[in-house]
Each structure stands twice: as structure tokens, then as C-alpha cells.
UniProtKB/TrEMBL annotation, chains A, B:
<protein>
    <submittedName>
        <fullName>Glycosyltransferase family 4 protein</fullName>
    </submittedName>
</protein>
<dbReference type="InterPro" id="IPR001296">
    <property type="entry name" value="Glyco_trans_1"/>
</dbReference>
<dbReference type="Pfam" id="PF13439">
    <property type="entry name" value="Glyco_transf_4"/>
</dbReference>
<feature type="domain" description="Glycosyl transferase family 1">
    <location>
        <begin position="167"/>
        <end position="296"/>
    </location>
</feature>
<dbReference type="GO" id="GO:0016757">
    <property type="term" value="F:glycosyltransferase activity"/>
</dbReference>
<feature type="domain" description="Glycosyltransferase subfamily 4-like N-terminal">
    <location>
        <begin position="18"/>
        <end position="161"/>
    </location>
</feature>
<keyword id="KW-0808">Transferase</keyword>
<dbReference type="Pfam" id="PF00534">
    <property type="entry name" value="Glycos_transf_1"/>
</dbReference>
<dbReference type="InterPro" id="IPR028098">
    <property type="entry name" value="Glyco_trans_4-like_N"/>
</dbReference>
Amino acid sequence: MRIAQISPLWERVPPFRYGGTELIVKLVTDELVRRGHEVSLFASGDSITTAKLRSVHPQALRLDPKIKEPSIYEQMMLAEVYQQAHHFDIIHSHVGYNCLSYCSFVKTPTVHTMHGIFTPDNEKIFRKFAWQPFISISEAQREPRLGLNYIHTVYNGIDTAVYPFYPEPTQPAYLAFVGRISPEKGPVQAIKIARAVGLPLKMAGKIDVVDKEFYTEQVEPLIDGEQIQYLGEISHEDKVKLLGGASITLFPINWREPFGLVMIESMATGTPVIGMGLGSVSEVIAHGKTGFVCHCLEKMIEVLPDAMKIDRQTCREYVVSRFSVESMTDEYEKAYAMVL
Amino acid sequence: MRIAQISPLWERVPPFRYGGTELIVKLVTDELVRRGHEVSLFASGDSITTAKLRSVHPQALRLDPKIKEPSIYEQMMLAEVYQQAHHFDIIHSHVGYNCLSYCSFVKTPTVHTMHGIFTPDNEKIFRKFAWQPFISISEAQREPRLGLNYIHTVYNGIDTAVYPFYPEPTQPAYLAFVGRISPEKGPVQAIKIARAVGLPLKMAGKIDVVDKEFYTEQVEPLIDGEQIQYLGEISHEDKVKLLGGASITLFPINWREPFGLVMIESMATGTPVIGMGLGSVSEVIAHGKTGFVCHCLEKMIEVLPDAMKIDRQTCREYVVSRFSVESMTDEYEKAYAMVL
């Protein structure tokens, strides 16, 4: 099949460090090539892929200080994709609402993976193009009131080969928290849980500019460097070690997470996850088997001893069978077949 | 002829106070309707026009505090215009590069009036669509190195009826400066000229946030409220009175002005203009007849006594014959005929 993949241009494919969307684009694209498809990847020129790379700029826009109007580059890319639509059997967009206004000019269908969240502004353009074929990354991500034509849910997948299995957690035991240090991700809640159960907590993740004040005022005062440690932004290797060595990974979110990649990253290393039952969490954690889905902080504390008894091999196998690149790509191939 | 006019959505058509592009859109649109064309105006929902108004939002985006992502509304508008392109004989865009990525999907031609300036980012998309039919608002605005397919120059026009003629300047004599208080517009140079010739200077114009520091540091200390007066932002009526009552309007710019509406506003009231010969200035002022085009500050000072002797009726007639709504619309009709 001749497939065009459209990635955001802000970050390279794959991303240097953070960038969930660009990581998924990388994995799907290269796996589709491996399966014999003829794939064109529209992405920043420094992207690395086995597909045919098509770029309007040599660098990830985020890394080029000369660029003041990034949306212009996306317009150029989308014009290129859709002007050449007849060369493709299907177009797979990862750029959210940005390509909606182009897809009705061509005969080649576009499928849209919804990586982002809805906002009062973007809801309006989604409603206008509600008939387009959308793919959600969890059932919870869907907003039934918008009436979008969802044709399938495709869970994100990871390359399980780069997440080695840790049969036993490190001793002495500790809890892990990996994610942006922002109110939605619940770092303060993670600290409360760790204090309540008397276990060390190792935290890692970036602090966005908008979250600087939240960090200084609400998180930093609770970090003692002993029981509660913050390791800053860490590499993939350090993240795997941190997650794999943990007894439990905490995911005490305060918002409707659309997917939550860190949950599958943790389970892939064998570490169960205790998550707050918002958004996708109950779809990603197999309650009682690979972790626990709770609805309040007290419950998260209460289930912790049981969670530590969970079989780590089961966690690993669960991710390999349900959240691998292969299973994700199987589902995308099904979605392509549905629209053709 | 069935014509679609596309306006920016940020400001209403016509603009509440400032907004050169939206004012031109208003004048051309209504004049085309008066001439019997079937015109659809794509603009904010609070626009006032005799054409058929088509909107994706009830208000100018600038005035709606709930709007965080204005570009989404422009995407919705452009999708609507181009999906219905077959209902129009011609599409006339005033939104710069934003519609370039759409126009090649339809058979109806688009003509693009270039109201804005070129930037390192937008130059790239203009080059990509260089074959599209462009209209410059002055010869000087063109950038030959970009190789754009300019089909015509159409000077901006004004509704001369709302600029009454002042046969004599007010006594005691004064100089006028109307424009943004920004380095490009040369308010400091205007003050230097006024001081050199010993005439009062009345200045009016808005101060943008980015120019606040420039104003406080370089302009404000020179304003004494007597010889040098700053009147702030003023209404259309006050602007006409200020320009019409002046002996001379100064236009001592420091940048390549693409058109410079205030020059024709001043001449319409009968007041000659002394301008710095950058950008469009030598095309808009009839040197020696309706003002003077100079190349340094000293020359602007030197020609002032001669400029005060210029016949004010000639200034008025010059604008009526070359820079009226009617002459502008004549030229746009010629441009439409060229692409059809």
C-alpha cells in the first residue's frame, strides 16, 4: 500500500527526548516499511526513518532559532501532501485539526489519529469535519458530544526491545514517578502516597516554563533529597532503569489522560502501576493483574501492598501482547482497510 | 461577475479604528456591489457590508477574549471559501500567504493583494507559489528576487467623501504627524524638523505594546505639550481635522513603506506631504506638485517653505483622480479580467 504519514514539524521523528506523537509516528512508519508498504514520511528534515522522507525544512522547527512563524512550514508541508495525494492510497495524519481543511479537496482518504486534546477553539473545526475518519488512542479520549466519526481505537505501542525486563525490583524498594512536573500529572499526590507508606519516591520529568511556579511553590518544598528525590529530565536509559528498578510506578493524575505512555513503559519493564481512574487509565492498566485503578488517594495507598505482590512477568507479557509496535501497527492496518 | 473577497478575521470590516487592510476590503467590496457584481465577503460576523457576508465567527477575533487559537478560524474560513470555489468566477484574497496552500486545489483563480510585508519565513511559501497572480499595492513593495508573478499594481484608495477639503490651513500654522509612534514611522525625525523650522507639531497615532519603550525613552522626553504635542489615538473625524488644518504633513519614515495611507488622506484634505523617499513614497507623492520626496532630513527642512506654497486644490484633485475607491476598483476589475 502507498501510505503518506504526516508528522508535526516542531520535533524530529523520532524525538530527541520528549515528544509522544513523534515517537509513535516513528514506530508506525518504520514498522509499515518493514511489512512491505511504500511509505512517505512528511516530517522535519533531520528525521530518521526507513521510509521515504519528505521535508520542507532541514531541521526540527523547535531547534531552529531563525524560525518565527512555524505555522507557515506546516502549511507548505500540507500543500505538498495534498497536491500529491493521488500518489498515495491513504494519508495518515498525526497533526490533529491542521489538515482537516485540506482533506476534502482530494480523492485519497485521510485517517486522523487524535494525539492531542480538545479545546474550545479546535472543537469547532473538528465538528465541521466530523465526517472525516478519526482514530482515538483510547476509548476515554472520545468526546461523544462532538459526534466525530471514530472508526477505531488504536492504543499507542512501544518498541518493547528497548524496555528490558526487570524480574525483580531493586532493593531497598522505592516508588517511581515519571512525567511532567505539572498539576495534571499529580507529583504532589505521588509524594503524599510515598509519605503515607513510608517508601522512598524517585521522580523524573521535565518542568515546562508554565509549570515553573507550580514546581517552586508546591513541589520543591516537599523534596528532601532522601525519601523524596527529584532527578530532573533523564535519558531513555535512565528512565528504563528508574522504572524497571521500582517496586511500583505511581500515576496519580488529576486530568483525563488521553493515553499515558509511561504506564506501558513501566509495565514493559515488569513494574506494576497504580493509577488514578481518569481518562484512559482503566483501559491501560489491567486492574488486579498489572496494577490497580483507584478513584481516590486513600485507595491508592491502601492497594500498595497488594500491588507489590503482582507478578512482574504478567505485566511484561501484557504490554508485549497489547501495547507493542506490532499490535499497534496491526490495528492501523485494519483502520486503513476500513476506509478503503 | 461572482466574486469572493477574503478578509483577515482579526479585525472587523470596516475596522473600528485601525486596520488598513480591512478598510480597503470594505471599500472595494461595497464598490463592486454598487457596480452590479455578485460579491460574497468572507469576514468576521460583525462586519458591515452590502455584499453577502459569510462568517465562521460572529465577532472580530481581536474582540473575543475567549479565543485562544485564532488561526483555527482562518482555516475554517479558507476551507469554506475553497470548497465552494465553483460558485465564484474569481477569489480575491487579502489574507497574504494564508490561502496560498489552498488555491491550487480549485479551478477558480485567486488573485492575491499583498497588504503585508515579506519575512524570512513567509518568503519561503511565497516562492513556492510564485506562479499565483499577485497584486502589489505599490511598485516599491515588490521584491524582484522572489520572482513572484505580479500581474498588476493597484494603489490603495480612499472614500474621498469622508475626507472634506480644507482650502486653507488653520492659523497659526502647524505641522502634522499621523501614524504609529514607532521607529519606522519617524516621529523623532518629525520633531527634529518642527524644531528646525520653529513650527508647532501635532502628532497622533497609537503606541503598540512593542513600541512602549521607544516612546518612553525617545519620544516622550521631546514632547513639551506646546510646540510638540502628542494627542494619542484619535477618531477619524479628529484625524481629518488634524490633517486638513495642517500646513504640511510630515512622513519622515525610516523603512520601506508598502503604501502609506496617511499620505493620501492628507492630500485629500488639501494638505501637501513631505516624505522620505523610501518604499512607495515617490509613487504616492507627486514631487513638487502635491508635496516633496526627500532623501535626508536636511532636505525635508529645506523644502518646507516651498511645500507651504503648494496649491491645496491640486493635492485634492490628485487624490480624487488617482487614489479614490473608484480608481482602485477600476484597477481591480482590470486585474480580474487579466486572470480570467
